[in-house]
């Protein structure tokens, strides 16, 4: 049986990146036996071992690491060449899986999703919601949207803009506990803290005014690491919270949440789209990234 070398390269790259035949098969929607046999036939064709196999993981040999670099170059060039030809006659298409915080999914994506579908009807958009760090290769994610400072990463980062943040609380909470007028009043209030990753500074609230920055240490009895839960706890009257204005704009209009200390605002927070480093970005990722940037630019009243 003749070996399809392009397909074999694609399968080999996915196995190498996932460090697992099973995970590679899942993300490629292929039987595990097909993936295993293809790599074996590729090694037989090249007459060199590309991967070391153990019961727990798969790792590259020295020859495999060199071959992986060349395969990526070849496959990127093929994709770039084909996309240049096809994009001239048809819209971007195919599956696009994007991971993002729940707040952005509910408050930014959902109200505008129909417009995206009308513009790009051939893109099958898969939205996964989380605030955790995602392994894009192993989990089959094409790109992620994140807010705040980014950890060191090999991913390519495209800045999309910045969210303006506010300090707020539910109307019921403020009626019961009073409205803080100055930062020193915060010592008499409850606060809901937000944490992510290895962040140990969950007791801090950050403010700035006219270039002056202040950090206030505030004790609390609860902290969460998911945006939608954070908003719900604020609505539930558990205390003050610091949130992107865009994510709670409807609650502010309805006055179920009230912004306080508006002369001391939290610093604006960057919104960034991240994707694996490739020589050529897929058309679907490119148009989605451009669309997100448009949303931010079209809503300057809620962005910085």
Structure overview:
- This protein is of the alpha/beta class and 304 residues long.
- The protein has 3 domains: 5-86, Winged helix-like DNA-binding domain superfamily/Winged helix DNA-binding domain (Arc Repressor Mutant, subunit A), CATH 1.10.10.10; 94-156 and 277-302, D-Maltodextrin-Binding Protein, domain 2 (3-Layer(aba) Sandwich); 165-267, Periplasmic binding protein-like II (D-Maltodextrin-Binding Protein, domain 2, 3-Layer(aba) Sandwich), CATH 3.40.190.
- 39% of the residues lie in helices and 23% in strands.
- The chain contains 11 helices and 14 strands.
- It has helices at 5-18, 21-28, 32-46, 62-86, 102-109, 113-119, 136-139, 171-177, 227-235, 249-254, 283-298, and strands spanning 51-53, 58-60, 94-100, 123-129, 143-147, 156-163, 165-170, 193-194, 204-209, 212-217, 223-224, 241-244, 257-260, 269-275.
- The strands form 5 sheets. It has a 5-stranded mixed β-sheet with strand order 4-3-5-14-6. It has a 3-stranded antiparallel β-sheet with strand order 12-7-13. The protein has a two-stranded antiparallel ribbon with strand order 1-2.
- A hairpin with a 4-residue loop joins strand 1 (51-53) and strand 2.
- The protein is elongated.
- Mean pLDDT is 86; it is low at 300-304.
Radius of gyration: 24 Å
CATH architecture of the largest domain: 3-Layer(aba) Sandwich
Percent of residues in helices: 25-40%
Biggest sheet strand order reads 4-3-5-14-6
> Regarding CATH, which class of the largest domain?
Alpha Beta
- Intertermini distance: 59 Å
- CATH homology superfamily of the largest domain: Periplasmic binding protein-like II
The proportion of residues in beta strands is 15-25%
Largest pleated sheet: 5 strands, mixed
Shape: elongated
Order of helices and strands: HHHEEHEHHEHEEEHEEEEHEHEEH
The number of helical segments is: 11
Mean pLDDT: 86
CATH topology of the largest domain: D-Maltodextrin-Binding Protein, domain 2
Low-confidence stretches: 300-304
Structural class: alpha/beta
Tell me how many strands there are.
14
């Amino acid at each position: 049986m003749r070996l399809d070398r392009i397909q074999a390269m694609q399968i080999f790259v996915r196995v190498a990146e996932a460090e697992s035949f099973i995970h590679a098969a899942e993300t490629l929607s292929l039987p595990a036996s097909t993936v295993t046999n293809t790599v074996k036939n590729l090694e037989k064709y090249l007459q060199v071992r590309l991967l070391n196999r153990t019961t727990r993981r798969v790792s590259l040999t020295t020859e495999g690491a060199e071959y992986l670099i060349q395969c990526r170059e070849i496959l990127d060039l093929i994709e770039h060449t084909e996309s240049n030809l096809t994009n001239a006659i048809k819209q971007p298409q195919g599956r696009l899986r994007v991971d993002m915080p729940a707040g952005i999914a509910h408050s930014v994506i959902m109200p505008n999703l129909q417009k995206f579908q009308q513009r790009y009807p051939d893109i099958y958009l898969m939205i996964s919601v989380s605030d955790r760090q995602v392994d894009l290769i192993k989990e089959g994610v094409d790109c992620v949207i994140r807010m705040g400072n980014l950890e060191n990463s090999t991913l390519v980062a495209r800045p999309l803009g910045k969210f303006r943040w506010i300090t707020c609380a539910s109307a019921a909470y403020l009626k019961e506990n009073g409205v803080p007028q100055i930062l020193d009043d915060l010592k008499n209030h409850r606060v809901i803290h937000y944490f992510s990753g290895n962040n140990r500074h969950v007791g801090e609230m950050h403010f700035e005014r006219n270039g002056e920055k202040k950090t206030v240490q505030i004790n609390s009895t609860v902290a969460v690491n998911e945006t939608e839960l954070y908003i719900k706890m604020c609505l539930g009257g558990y205390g003050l919270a610091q949130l992107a204005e865009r994510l709670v704009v409807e609650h502010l209009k309805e006055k179920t949440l009230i912004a306080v200390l508006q002369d001391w605002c939290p610093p604006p927070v960057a919104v960034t789209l991240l994707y694996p480093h490739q020589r050529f970005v897929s058309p679907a990722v490119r148009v989605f990234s451009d669309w997100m940037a448009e949303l931010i630019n079209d809503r300057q009243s809620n962005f910085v």
